[in-house]
Write a structure and sequence with these properties.
about 575 residues; alpha/beta; Fumarate Reductase Iron-sulfur Protein, Chain B, domain 2; FAD/NAD(P)-binding domain; four-stranded parallel beta sheet; 19 helices
């Protein structure tokens, strides 16, 4: 009957774990038959998972962040106390709220139940960024789950989002962790793949520093398989996490791509983000439709070049973040669809033009997207001074190659391990979002912790997802969504790579956005059930600092189910009172 709640879920009690057993204990029985209850059903309080958390690859309990701020006055807290509480709730599942609030494509918002109303989804992404920035500005420190120092040591290969997330979660649990990073500075693709106009380096550095303060040691310029062997790590450490990312660009496979001015998207971004001077000329052509292609194009545009993106499908199929595509178009980048390269014309060792073929969409492929089909005789050329293919990336395996599966990637099992004591996550498993990598790192850390303690890992109980049909959306007031502001295009192109273009939302907007959360699946403290109960059988428990748990005096309940009908968030449901 009970629901086990983990530390990563801040809802302290539901009546399924507290109210009903408590009442039975008081009555000296394990069954209750409600007074005057003809249906033999009584209200039960069912904690459910909101769809925003289901949509978040990092597994963030977004509902708790929002409702903490939303209930500031009701809980008699200062705004600053609520801001810090929200940051601490965020830090249970992610050490990168300020980073993800800038670069995540917010799949959580697509799932938000408020999106079914005319005012649109809660602006979770901007809310997360504001919380993360507050933590940085006020020097907030992460809290450990234990002060005990474990006698097991863990090595993490790669200081990208997956590796740092894993290290952070293990440090919270008291483990000494050493991170080995091949590049001169930590961050992985966050630093070497994402331009600073999207992710300022002081923000990235601050959140990495907060991880280091947990006791995580980060050793840079150390390549496992060159400076130190994998077998050395296995002999020295009790467990290893592999999170080396995917820093090698995939080639086009066409004649002429060995020309000196043909640079893969991942290499181009690495060079620029490492501070190298890259001369791209006047006409840059980028091939691809993913995030790296858009980033490379926008960087080249800031170098003053005319930039053209060639993509073999249409915008509907583009995997890049839609917002970033909009920004690229606003910055006068030309995106040409249904075009694929078939060759590169060179002169004196340099690419001078891309030979192209027009495409049309055919049947759907394994990815679910319509397959591009060449149109015979549609050949043409696009002039270029620099060509940047950005069609995909893969890891540079070195000694880790011993664990590569049949699909040419690492294939961890349900415990996120690829061998005894060897775990993996992030882009070595499959190319995904930064938030996906953060989630991989946390899940692996939880299982490593259990294994190192000689325990079996028990995943959290699967809770029901709160869908719009379970809720009463008409109860919630229509509230305008608060949108972030942007630096005008004319200013950003002249501001160089370091000018952040996203100005986020104000503190007032931040508070207003919290008020838009509908607290799906947990008490919103509206007191509708208490007000409408004809038997006056419901009271409240104000001790719960996050979500109110309503208490039903079952001996007074008539089973009329009015409370369940008026509960807007789907928390109250009718269940059998006899032998629950």
């Amino acid at each position: 009957m009970s629901i086990k709640l983990t530390e990563s879920n801040p809802i302290l009690d539901s009546a399924l774990t507290y109210q009903f057993p408590k009442y039975c204990e008081e009555q000296g029985t394990d069954k209750v038959v409600a007074f005057g209850n003809q249906s033999n059903k009584c209200p039960i309080y069912v904690l459910q998972v909101p769809p925003c958390t289901v949509g978040c690859p990092a597994g963030n309990d977004i509902r708790s962040w929002l409702t903490i701020v939303q209930k500031t006055d009701q809980k008699k807290r200062s705004w600053e106390e609520s801001y810090e509480l929200a940051w601490r709730e965020a830090s249970k599942t992610t050490p990168f709220p300020a980073v993800c609030g800038r670069i995540c494509p917010y799949p959580c918002e697509i799932k938000c139940n408020r999106s079914k109303k005319e005012d649109g989804a809660v602006n979770i992404n901007a809310f997360e960024r504001w919380v993360g920035d507050y933590g940085i500005t006020h020097g907030l420190r992460h809290e450990k789950l234990t002060e005990e120092v474990m006698d097991k040591k863990v090595a993490v290969i790669g200081a990208g989002p997956a590796g740092l997330s894993c290290a952070f979660q293990l440090a919270r649990r008291g483990y000494p962790v050493t991170v080995f990073e091949a590049f001169p500075m930590p961050g992985g693709m966050l630093r070497y793949g994402i331009p600073p106009y999207r992710l300022p380096r002081n923000i990235l550095d601050a959140e990495i520093k907060a991880i280091s303060r947990m006791g995580v040691e980060i050793l840079c310029n150390t390549v496992i398989g060159k400076d130190k062997s994998l077998d050395d790590l296995k002999a020295e450490f009790d467990a290893i996490f592999i999170g080396i990312g995917a820093h090698e660009g995939i080639k086009l496979g066409v004649e002429g791509e060995d020309a000196s001015n043909v640079i893969s998207g991942v290499t181009f971004l690495n060079m620029v983000n490492s501070g190298e001077t890259v001369h791209v000329g006047d006409d840059v052509v980028v091939i691809g439709g993913g995030d790296s292609a858009i980033d490379a194009a926008r960087v080249a545009r800031r170098f003053g070049a005319k930039v053209t993106i060639l993509y073999r499908r249409t915008r509907t199929e583009m995997p890049a973040i839609e917002r970033e595509v909009d920004e690229a178009l606003a910055e006068d980048i030309d995106i040409r669809y249904l075009i694929t390269p078939i060759g590169i014309r060179t002169k004196d060792g340099n690419a001078v033009a891309v030979e192209c073929l027009r495409m049309e969409l055919g049947d759907r492929d394994d990815s679910g997207r319509r397959r591009p089909v060449p149109i015979s005789g549609s050949n043409f050329e696009v002039r270029c001074t620099t060509l940047i293919p950005a069609i995909g990336q893969r890891p540079q395996w070195k000694e880790v190659k011993r664990y590569v599966g049949k699909n040419d990637w690492l294939m961890p099992n349900e415990n996120w391990s690829v061998d005894e004591g060897i775990y993996a996550g992030g882009d070595v498993v499959n190319m995904g979002l930064v938030t996906t990598a953060i989630g991989h790192g946390r899940k692996a850390a939880e299982r490593m912790d259990a294994q190192l303690k000689g325990q079996r890992f028990h995943p959290s109980d699967q809770l029901r997802i709160v869908t719009p049909e379970i809720m009463h959306l008409e109860y919630y007031e229509t509230l305008k969504r608060n949108e972030r502001k942007w630096v005008p295009v004319a200013e950003r192109l002249g501001g160089g790579l370091d000018l952040e273009v996203d100005l986020c939302i104000t503190e007032e907007q931040f508070r207003d956005e919290a008020m838009r959360c509908m607290s799906c699946g947990v008490c919103v403290e509206c007191n509708q059930c208490l007000i409408f109960c004809p038997q006056q059988s419901i009271s409240t428990f104000p001790e719960n600092p996050i979500g109110e748990v309503m208490y039903t005096h079952y001996s007074q309940c008539a089973g009329c189910h009015i409370c369940a009908q008026v509960c807007p968030c789907g928390y109250i449901q009718m269940g059998m009172a006899d032998g629950l």
